[in-house]
Design goal:
There is one protein chain. The chain folds into two domains: 40 residues; 32 residues, no CATH class. The longest helix is centred in the middle third of the chain and has 24 residues. It is 64% helix and 0% strand. It is mainly α.
């Protein structure tokens, strides 16, 4: 029995890089470095964020209760619906 495995995303990226003309290599490098820096920056920020040690306010408790009631009643919108409503899709 033979199995044909689909290429991984990393393999697909390598293949795309191999197909790029030499004149686009510097642009591709900068894009990938920027993506890496952004991901590393977000990870660092989340890992080093202080724990929220402030007590929950009555207003926050009420907002959470309202959100849970909306969810239970089905008063929700999908990400795609919100994007359409806001003109982003």
């Amino acid at each position: 029995m033979t199995s044909s495995s689909a290429p991984t995303v990393k393999q697909q990226l390598h293949a795309l890089i191999d197909l790029l003309p030499e004149s686009e290599m510097e642009t591709a490098r900068r894009v990938l470095e920027g993506l890496h820096a952004t991901a590393a920056s977000q990870r660092y920020t989340l890992e080093d964020a202080p724990v929220d040690d402030e007590p929950e306010t009555e207003e926050e408790r009420a907002a959470v209760a309202e959100a849970r009631a909306d969810l239970a009643a089905g008063r929700v919108h999908s990400h795609e619906e919100l994007k359409r409503e806001l003109g982003l899709a």
